[in-house]
Amino acid sequence: MVLDDREFTALQVFVPEVAEMFARDDRAWHAIESWSANQQAAIENLYSCVLDLWIVDNGHGMPTDIIKNHWMVIGTDAKDLHGTSKGGRIVTGAKGIGRFALDRLGQQCEMFSAAAGADQIVHWRVDWSDFEGTGKVIGDVEAVLETEATTLDAVYRTSQLVEILPKALPERDGVALPIDYSTGTAIRIGLLNDVWDE
Fold first, then answer.
1. Is beta strand 144-148 parallel, antiparallel or unpaired with respect to 121-127?
2. Which is nearest to 102 in space by CA: 4, 180, 190?
3. Mean pLDDT to the nearest integer, 127-153
4. Which residues contact 54 (CB under 8 A, 6 or more apart)?
5. What is the distance between the alpha carbons of residues 109 and 127, in angstroms, rounded to a whole number?
6. 15 within 8 A of 47, measured Cβ to Cβ
7. Of 80, 88, 119, 130, which is least surrounded by CB within 10 A?
8. Torsions phi, psi of 51, nearest 5?
């Protein structure tokens, strides 16, 4: 296991003994091969509750133009004009400021979104630590928005979410409908600022 300085610092906040588990060379922190069973368990637990938080929605997803012209823009009235989604869900949020709560939750953020019929996903990412520093303003920080020739299912498999995502909706009238994750939006918040153990 290899960690950069930020990952190591984030781990050290929650597991102080991590300093005994890694050694630094001139570029990165490398795991010491002689971990005890307790140290291995501590790191595995840390990865499950500290490093990443995922928010997954299996709705209609957003194409690039919606993300660029509405989701990334503060103060749009798109939700006032279109209060429900195509499927009848109430569209939440107002004024486009909720995404800044992501900064409070963790240092890194990625969003993956796939609309029906698309042969690619939209991938947005930002490193909130770019905001840190004296005199920084929002215009100094750039988020990356690109399309990728993959699927949300592939993202979920790579991120090992497939094992923990619910497979079916709660039963209604004795029937539990399967959940389709091929469209929707998923947000990954990385290097969390707090422990999420529940």
1. antiparallel
2. 190
3. 84
4. 159, 161, 186, 187, 188, 189
5. 6
6. no
7. 88
8. -75, -40
